[in-house]
Amino acid sequence: MQEPKSEKILLVGWDAADWDIITPLLSQNKMPNLQKLINTGASGTIQTLQPALSPMLWTSITTGKTADKHGILGFIEPNLESGNPRPASVTSRQCKAVWNILTQQHLKTNVIGWWPSHPAEPINGVAVSNLFTKNDKHHNVIDHSIYPNDWTKRITNCRVYTEDIALTELIDFVPQALSINQDKDKHLHNLATLIANAKSIQQATKEIIANTEWDFTAVYFDVIDQVCHTFMKFYPPQMAGVPDDYYALYSNVINQMYIYHDTMLGELLELAGEDTTVMLLSDHGFYSNHLRPIRLPNDPAAPAFEHAPFGILCVKGTNIKQDYIINGASLLDITPTLLNLFSLPIGKDMDGEILEDLLRTKKNIDPIDSWEKIEGNCGMHKIGNTDQSWQSAAALFQLMELGYIQKFEANKEITLKKIINESHYYLSTALMSIYKYDEAHTLLHQLHHEN
Predict the structure, then answer these.
(1) Closest Cα to residue 357, out of 401, 410, 398, 320?
(2) Is 220 helix (H, G, I), strand (E, B) or coil?
């Protein structure tokens, strides 16, 4: 195998970021850091996959494989030993992510907040899991959310909590924040929590980038998606049924959150340095126009009906064309493109392709059958590990609040069956989207027969 080239790459994920919201902000010069990224590189849309559920999508992004291959099938999964539900775990991923491949090739790699990435994997670098921003009532960071152990204190000190967000900081998002009765209206508290989570991921990333030698760093922010699920009904123009007072209070929240993310992007770009290749993308868009659903159907993961089919993709670097418009990109193309930038082969079992059109020079490297057949330490956990300490009630509660999952039954058997059914339903949807209709039919027929 060809020796990998040491080329620094920063991969930034903004869940649900959408050009329809970004473009007006760019025209008003309110997102200067993203504008610089666009001007100095390639940008365009990227097509999502079905079903448009974030844990499945972000895993496809970093494996180059569809859900039937990588094995992440929704937001929650059953712990078969206890019968309790748990958030989707990295130990259910059935193949290597790009950071595992790079670890195996002795490249130094960091991953922060990726969904799902808990428990933190023992990669050749620093890993901070997606449960880092969750905590118990004593503000203890969840066990196994940071690797290696000697980074635990440093990363824990990066954690920001809801009560750390001053009311004056919220005024940028809600100018009339001081007038809100917070005993009756919880929107301000929820917004403070989202800002705290974004700041936690940002501070952890800055700490890692500034204090490690690295070839690849991947960081994921989920707050744009969450703020859109909560506040999109207040986004201009005013929708029918939205009270005037709520519209006046919260119509600016989403735009301000994008501006906030642009500021964070600028900090990361400065720390990473001009010579670093930067890739910014979202897993899907978010309807902000007349296609916004007035109400959501009674369907598993109904909030996904608010997701638009195209996200954003921006790339700049020494081997990236400048001022180039990207067309036809898929989430599945990200890992093959990253591997090519590192002078590494893609696997024939990957479903994506190298985005050759945005490269100045494609590196002609023969593909290998599969990275799963390459032996050596890759920093993966044993698949299927069900350590009880990896449970997170806080993460499950947040998914309930967003509407992605419903409250669990008291009967564990009923809960377990429901989780398995939903996972099979999502898998059948994924199979239909890649034209594997016979396999999807078998799953759906079984679901219908048993329920």
Answers:
(1) 320
(2) strand
Q: Give CA separation, 269 vs 12, 261, 276, in Å.
A: 10, 12, 8
> What is the C-alpha separation between 13 and 208, in angstroms, rounded?
17
Q: Helix (H, G, I), strand (E, B), or coil: what is residue 425?
A: helix
Residue with tokens 């679901």: 447
CA–CA separation, 42 vs 321, rounded Å? 6
Structure tokens at 165: 């967000």
Segment 304-314, tens digit of pLDDT: 899 999 999 99
C-alpha–C-alpha distance, residues 429 and 431, integer Å: 5
- Residue 45 bridge partners (DSSP): 312
Q: How do residues 244-260 score in pLDDT, each as one tens digit?
A: 999 999 999 999 999 99
To the question of pTM greater than 0.85 for the whole model, the response is: yes
Q: In which residue are the tokens 């952890």 written?
A: 204
Q: Give pLDDT tens digits for 350-368.
A: 999 999 999 999 899 999 9
From CA 309, how far away is CA 287, in angstroms rounded? 9
pLDDT in tens, 282-299: 999 999 999 998 888 877
In 3D space, the residue among 380, 404, 382 whose CA is nearest the CA of residue 111 turns out to be 380
pLDDT at residue 94, as a whole number? 94
pLDDT under 50: residue ranges of the chain: 387-391
Q: What is the DSSP string of 396-416?
A: HHHHHHHTSSPPPPSSHHHHH
Q: Is 338 helix (H, G, I), strand (E, B) or coil?
A: helix
- Residue 334 zone, left/alpha/beta (φ > 0; ψ -120 to 50; rest): alpha
Neighbours of 99 (CB within 10 A): 28
Burial pattern 64-85, b for ≥16 Cβ within 10 A else e, equals bbbbbbbbbbbbbbbbeeeebb
Rounded (10°) angle between helices 223-231 and 187-211? 170
| Residue 112 tokens, joined | 């922060």
Q: Which of 15, 27, 90 is nearest to 53 (CA)?
A: 15
CA distance 335 to 342: 11
- Residue 87, beta-bridge partner list: 76
* Sheet of strand 146-147: strand arrangement: 146-147, 127-128, 109-112, 216-221, 9-14, 277-281, 310-316, 42-47, 324-330
What pLDDT score does 111 carry? 98
**Cα–Cα distance for residue pair 216/218, rounded to 1 Å:** 7
* Distance of alpha carbon 339 from alpha carbon 337, whole angstroms: 5
Quote the pLDDT of residue 154: 96
204, 128 Cβ separation under 8 angstroms: yes
